[in-house]
Write a structure and sequence with these properties.
Blueprint: H1 6-77
Length: 78
């Protein structure tokens, strides 16, 4: 197959490599964006879990603090 016309040369030597390059760049960019979004999602999930653990810890410490205060008052009354 001989390349004779200017349209054939344009499509083979310019448009085909350009389309391939754009496709590959889009493919790589897509996977890069997925990786960035997953990293942000993981970080946000860890922060939410840390905040929930802090709230649970504070709730669990409340009865302990009340018990300590009651014991201190009982000692002070003796």
């Amino acid at each position: 197959m001989a390349i004779k016309s200017l349209n054939q040369r344009l499509s083979i030597f310019l448009l085909l490599p350009l389309a391939t390059l754009l496709f590959l760049m889009g493919f790589v960019g897509f996977f890069y964006a997925i990786e960035v979004f997953l990293h942000q999602w993981r970080e946000a999930s860890v922060l939410k879990l840390q905040r929930a653990a802090h709230h649970i810890d504070m709730r669990l410490n409340q009865p302990i603090e009340v018990d300590k205060r009651v014991q201190q008052r009982q000692r002070a009354q003796r």
